[in-house]
């Protein structure tokens, strides 16, 4: 005869965020104050357009398309466009010194926009559905333009030390004794029982 008490099955409780009407109104009132404090010019210029304006050599229209293209090639929803811009800035700097590269990039963006307009009636950067944009990328993926941008982004984006913490990467460890002595098993972002 066992002396253990029988286990009762665990009850699973659905997580719900409780928000009262008063809490909602209070939060939306604070948001309205914050929005009213912003200048009209800031509200009228979307963030991506503002970032694209920094492309002086290739131009803002090409810059905007390259930003969207970069995000579509290496999609990370929680990463800001400014990190993609940082990855593309050296490419623009190279284009300032290399006319062939500048032509490859501007002609590549123009061809991508033509393809998007033929198939979907809008320029590539103006397409709102990611699946539409990715479908177009499958068409051009073996071309020199796509390969150049993708090849540059692999290192330009993922070698940016400012992005590493956003992925949970702590950086090089050998000079600090290696990962064995520095939390090699503290990964909590895989979702397992670490």
Notes on the protein architecture:
The chain is mainly α and 194 residues long. It has a domain of 115 residues. Helices cover 57% and strands 0% of the residues.
What is the helical fraction, as a range of percent?
Answer: 55-70%
Number of strands: 0
Strand content: under 5%
Order of helices and strands: HHHHHHHHH
Query: What global shape is seen?
Result: globular
Compact description:
The protein is mainly α and 194 residues long. It has a domain at 46-160. It has helices at 21-37, 40-44, 47-52, 60-73, 81-97, 99-120, 130-140, 144-158, 164-167.
Which labels suit this protein?
194 residues; 57% helix; mainly alpha; 9 helices
Set down the secondary structure blueprint.
Elements: H1 21-37, H2 40-44, H3 47-52, H4 60-73, H5 81-97, H6 99-120, H7 130-140, H8 144-158, H9 164-167
